[in-house]
């Protein structure tokens, strides 16, 4: 599976388990919550006030 900014948080963690630590470093502590199953990386960045380009770079995801 190719991870994009429109992948859910859970898809990201399943595909790239090391991303959990990166997300936590950005203040996203609720990685196992129900929202993570439906919230995309893009949405999570917006909700948490994280610059999308910065988060994408840290996760190794191309900004589209």
Largest sheet: none
Rg value: 10 Å
Q: What general form does the structure show?
A: globular
What's the domain count? 1
Question: How many strand segments?
Answer: 0
Order of helices and strands: HHHH
Residues in helix, %: 40-55%
Name the poorly predicted regions: none
What is the count of helical runs? Answer: 4
Domain DUF1858: 3-55
Protein name: DUF1858 domain-containing protein
InterPro entries: CHP03980_redox-disulphide, DUF1858, ScdA-like_N_sf
Describe what is shown at a glance:
The protein has helices spanning 9-15, 19-25, 41-47, 52-59. It is mainly α and 64 residues long.
What does this protein structure show overall?
The chain is mainly α and 64 residues long. The protein has one domain. The chain has helices at 9-15, 19-25, 41-47, 52-59. The longest helix is centred in the last third of the chain and has 8 residues, at 52-59. The protein is globular, with a radius of gyration of 10 Å. The relative contact order is 0.25. The model has no long low-confidence stretch (mean pLDDT 90).
Give a quick set of tags describing it.
single chain; 64 residues; mainly alpha; 0% strand; globular
Which helices and strands, and how do they pair?
Elements: H1 9-15, H2 19-25, H3 41-47, H4 52-59
